[in-house]
Amino acid sequence: MPSRRKTSMFASAFCTCVSSFVVICVVLATPQWVSSDVRFSRTNSTVTVSLTYGLFSGTCEQFVDAGLLVSEKTFQVADTVSSTRSRSLNVAIIVVLVLALLSSLLSSGFTCTNAVSNPYQTFLGPVGVYTWNSVCGVLTLIAMILFPVNVQGNSLSQELAHGCSTSLQTHLGSKHNYGYSYWIMLLILFLNIASLIIIYFYDHTRYSKKKEQERPIENAPKDVILF
Fold first, then answer.
1. How many Cβ atoms are within 10 Å of 208's Cβ, its own excluded?
2. Which of 101, 113, 69, 104 lies closest to 194, judged by CA?
3. Distance CA 191, CA 168 (A)
4. Lower Cβ count inside 10 Å, N or C end of the chain?
5. What are the tens digits of pLDDT across the range 9-43?
């Protein structure tokens, strides 16, 4: 059976890993990744297409400079995107986050195992927790980098605007605001770092205690040393 200290520390790390898993699920499920206002010219008027979308779906509205508002419309990102590059990058972000979800799940399993037992295999101990938390953090960071690249580098909002409205001509400009579904990925990073810190402190304390118990022979009393 593990010590009380080990159980409490790995239980704390388990909570942060599970929280990370839940947040990744929220990130994947919600469409509040970015809100974009994309302006186009049309014959004798200017049109602004307002979009809010995530990795799978979104909504769009159309405003004409005369004040006319076209009713809100729902769209599927995969069906609306025309560019192969934008679609491929969107799929890549989804795959990266699914892998982060799996690594977070594995990290939760490892911390739970260590909280209730003493695994014989080294990789099932702190090493495994370090590995899977690091993988989850790196994958989340990659997703945070790829999404703005797709939105601004590949003009994803502009493509989606064309799918939502017809007769759009010259693109005049775009404005992007990233929503909570994007920014809460920072929370995933913080939770993974918190898990790593908790396990590091446990590992460091255990190592220091072990070193103290293994006192070098030169520090032992002379009458105990046998020749």
1. 10
2. 104
3. 44
4. C
5. 888 999 999 999 999 999 999 999 999 999 888 77
